[in-house]
User: Fold this.
Amino acid sequence: MGGYYAFGSELVDGDMFYAFDETKLSIHTRDIGLAGIEVYDLLRDEYGIQIEFGDIGNILAIISVGDRNIDIERLISALYEIKRLHQKDKAGLFDHEYINPQIVMGPQKAFYGQKRSPPIEESRDCVCGEFVMCYPPGIPILAPGEMITQDILDYIAYAKEKGCFMTGTEDMRIEKINVVAES
Assistant:
């Protein structure tokens, strides 16, 4: 149907990838101009299809022995309809999901050290003193001891805008962030 990419056994190369679990249907959504969390919400709210999760650029559906062919066809039809009705220009979508961390302090020292809590938009070039995670998938965007860069701040704002659940911070709305106080 175009616009989506379902990761599959073509990734198995015997070097970086050794096997592929075909029961986990991971689909890249950015090419239709939608974040995975947006497709996840549309599937749930408009089509009554509950999948495992959606993140910034992908959705994940678990296929099991309890699924019938008609269930898979219903998912494919819904994805086709979402593309047809909601596809937009992918300009403005994040083109990456991983930001290489700049570790400037040990995590224990940063986590247990003296901290202050500036507004997040004023935290650029500070050392993070807590975890910032986007769920799904729950992998830290920031960990204690990492430098807060503009790229990371943009990613956090984007994830919040798209409706991802942010966790790990003392301030659950992530309007402020704990950073290492300068000594």
